[in-house]
Design goal:
Helix content: 25-40%
Largest sheet: 6 strands, mixed
Strand content: 15-25%
Oligomer: single chain
Order of helices and strands: EEEHEHHEHHEEEEEHHEHHEHHHEE
Radius of gyration: 19 Å
C-alpha cells in the first residue's frame, strides 16, 4: 500500500495470528505484536527474512491477548530483543497469572515470556526511524494501546479498529464496562489524522471514515442487547479453536467448551444452556455463518 512508508512492513498470516508490523529504521528495528504460539516459528522466519541479517532491537505488544503475544517467548530467546508491554499488565506477566492474563479463561495457549520495558498512554517512541505516540485504546481489552505516527498518518490499531468492526468486547463478559470504552476509542481514532490503518487482523486500509462508521454501527447493535456480544464471543472462541485445530469431533465439543471458563460461564449465566445445548447452538451458528462445516461427526474449519 503506497501510503505505508517502505520502512514499515506488515506481516499478515490469517486470522489465527494477529498481524505483525516490522519497522526498519536507519538506527533501530522493532516489531509490533508476535502472533499466536502455533505460528511462532513461522513468525520468527518471517521476521528474520525481513531483518536481512540485522538484529531486532525491540518487540512491542498492542495488548496481551494470546494471538498478539504468543510468539514473544521464542522471538526474545532467538533474537535477543527487548520486550515492551502495556504497563497495566506488567504485574500479571511478572507473576505469570494466566487467569488475570485471560489465557486460561479463553482456553488459549501462550508460552511464558519476560519483559524489559513498559508502555503507557502518553509515551513517545522512535520505531523504524519514525516518531510514534502511544495512545490508550480500552474496549476490546481494557489496557490495549494504539501506536500512531502523525508524520506519516499511520495508525497501528491492534483490535480497536478493523476494516469491518473490532475485537470482541471482553470486559462486558466479565461484568465490567466495555461498550462506552469502545465508543471513546473510536472517537479518539476519529480525531487523529490517520491516512492508513494497520489493524490487528486483516489488510491495511485507507477508508478510515468508512471503517469508523461500520464500527459505530456494530457497537450500536451490540450495546442495544448485551447478549449479542456474548453470542459473538462464543462463536469467536469456537472459531479460534477450529482455526488452531482444523477439525474437532462433535462428540468432544461439549466437554471442550465446558473446559473454557469464559464460554462455560457465558453459556450458563447468560444463555441458560447446558454444555450440550450451547454446543448445538454454537455449531449451528458457525455453519449458518459459513465459518465452519459439519462432515459426518466432525466440525471442520472453512
Amino acid at each position: 500500500m503506497g501510503l505505508i512508508p517502505p520502512c514499515i512492513r506488515v506481516l499478515e498470516r490469517g486470522w489465527l495470528s494477529s498481524n505483525s508490523v516490522l519497522l526498519l529504521g536507519p538506527d533501530d528495528t522493532a516489531l509490533i505484536d508476535s502472533g499466536y504460539a502455533t505460528h511462532a516459528e513461522q513468525t520468527l522466519a518471517l521476521v528474520r527474512t525481513g531483518l536481512a541479517g540485522r538484529p531486532l532491537d525491540l518487540l512491542l505488544n498492542t495488548h496481551l491477548h494470546s494471538d498478539h503475544c504468543g510468539g514473544n517467548a521464542l522471538l526474545r530467546a532467538a533474537l535477543g530483543c527487548r520486550v515492551a508491554i502495556p504497563a497495566a499488565d506488567a504485574p500479571k506477566v511478572a507473576t505469570w497469572d494466566e487467569d488475570a492474563l485471560s489465557f486460561r479463561a479463553t482456553g488459549q495457549q501462550c508460552p511464558r515470556f519476560a519483559f524489559d520495558a513498559i508502555l503507557a498512554p502518553g509515551d513517545s517512541l522512535v520505531l523504524g526511524g519514525l516518531h510514534w505516540n502511544v495512545l490508550a485504546a480500552p474496549g476490546h481489552d481494557p489496557h490495549a494501546l494504539l501506536f500512531f505516527c502523525a508524520a506519516e498518518g499511520v495508525l497501528v490499531a491492534g483490535d480497536a479498529l478493523w476494516e469491518d468492526g473490532f475485537g470482541v468486547i471482553f470486559p462486558e463478559l466479565a461484568g465490567e464496562p466495555g461498550f462506552a470504552e469502545v465508543g471513546a476509542t473510536l472517537d479518539l481514532i476519529a480525531g487523529l489524522d490517520a491516512r492508513v490503518v494497520i489493524p490487528g487482523h486483516g489488510a491495511a486500509f485507507t477508508d478510515v471514515a468508512g471503517a469508523l462508521a461500520r464500527a459505530r454501527a456494530r457497537l450500536d447493535y451490540l450495546s442495544a442487547d448485551p447478549l449479542r456480544n456474548a453470542r459473538n464471543a462464543v462463536k469467536v472462541l469456537l472459531k479460534f479453536l477450529l482455526l488452531e485445530r482444523g477439525a474437532i469431533a462433535l462428540a468432544e465439543l461439549p466437554a471442550l467448551l465446558a473446559s473454557i471458563p469464559l464460554v462455560e460461564r457465558v453459556g450458563r449465566e447468560q444463555f441458560g444452556m447446558s454444555p450440550v445445548e450451547l454446543t448445538r447452538w454454537a455449531v449451528e451458528a458457525l455453519v449458518r455463518a459459513e465459518a465452519a462445516s459439519v462432515d459426518k461427526d466432525t466440525l471442520r474449519d472453512v
